[in-house]
Amino acid sequence: MAPLQLDNILLRKIITDLPVPIIITNAESKIFFANNDTCTLYGYTQQEIINQYLFDLSASKDEQSVFRNILQFSIKLEELSGRFVGKHINKFGKIIDVDLRWSYIKDQTKEYLVFCIEDITDLKKIEQEYVDKVKMLEVEIEQHKKIEKILNLTHQELKEKIAALEIQKKLNEEMLEELATSNELLERLAMQDSLTGIYNRRYFIEYLEAEIIRAQHLKEPLSLLIVDLDHFKQINDTFGHLIGDKVLVSVSKRVQSVIGNSNILCRYGGEEFAIICLGLNQNEALKLGEAILDTLNSKPISLKNSKIIVTASIGISTIKPYMWKGSIEIIRDYLIKTADKALYKAKKTGRNKVVSFRRQIKSEP
């Protein structure tokens, strides 16, 4: 079986530079792609990790067997995604606690597995420390019960001591719950752009793929808008980067107010934003793009006694994913590539306008 082709320069750069370890294998778990974060986590070079089997990274044969069975069963059922928490060993013999999440991709002749790997070693260590503390408290409770018999303590004295220990145990359990909540918060923060508070590029890629699948299932059109602020470098050069950052925050709020909660706004790049719109056809997406420009053009952004006029160019691509036979990655790359082409045309033909990509043939691939 031929390996998944990553010839698209943008796709390869996106996956290679993602701030999370990514491994792509065939259905037998043979690795044929690993990004930079994967090499950092496991200590291998690209050449060393390619053609290894993912199972071989397991820290023990027992866990390797369990993981193999789970993965093969998931593939057999053609489940779109899965998860396994276990222990891996890196090149230098260090044990790593990992949270493996994978997506199963299949077309007419090929099967692939895309693994997203999270190093949870520190989290597991903290959890184990709290579990050990709770166990020590439980042992201490039992010791106090024995002391009651030996020293013939009064029932009330012992009851008070045990109650105090039970309270301490409860407090520790609450701390464990708070730790779990904090971990969920960290996961949410990992999906947010630190400046604007909207979703970041990593979440954009994940959500776009998910919306493609939803569009296929619901038989709905899917539109992607890429918004690029015109001459933003001049704003930074004239007013400074701090003001430039405030402009980006203000623009993101204005755009969000136009698109509402049914569409997803992400920060795609420095001064670029991406909007994913499930259910919007080409004409509706064009109207939404015009509404965004109207909002930006309606009045300048007032910052530090200055009124800054902000315009933008918008590129749009609209498809019907349910009419496609290609993989999710192919559809995703096509949407991004064609929206970029439309954006380039908007820039080239005068800026401050909306351009929608139009195919030369009637039917979609």
CATH class of the largest domain: Alpha Beta
CATH topology of the largest domain: Alpha-Beta Plaits
Sequence of secondary-structure elements:
HEEHHHEEEHHHEHHEEHEEEHE
Derived from helix and strand composition plus strand pairing, the structural class reads: alpha+beta
* CATH-defined architecture of the largest domain: 2-Layer Sandwich
Please work out how many helical segments DSSP would assign. Answer: 11
Biggest pleated sheet: 5 strands, antiparallel
| Residues in β-strands, percent | 15-25%
CATH superfamily of the largest domain: Reverse transcriptase/Diguanylate cyclase domain
Shape type: globular
Rg result = 27 Å
Q: How many beta strands in the DSSP annotation?
A: 12
Structural domain count: 3
Low-confidence stretches: 360-365
Mean pLDDT across every amino acid position: 85
Q: Helical content, roughly?
A: 40-55%
Describe the strand arrangement of the main beta sheet, using strand numbers: 2-1-5-4-3
End-to-end separation: 23 Å
What does this structure look like?
The protein is α+β, with helices and mostly antiparallel strands. The chain is 51% helix and 21% strand. The chain has eleven helices and twelve strands. It has a five-stranded antiparallel sheet, with helices on both faces. Strand 1 and strand 2 form a beta hairpin. Helix 7 (201-218) packs across helix 11 (328-348) and helix 8 (232-239) crosses helix 9. The two termini are 23 Å apart. Mean pLDDT is 85; it is low at 360-365.
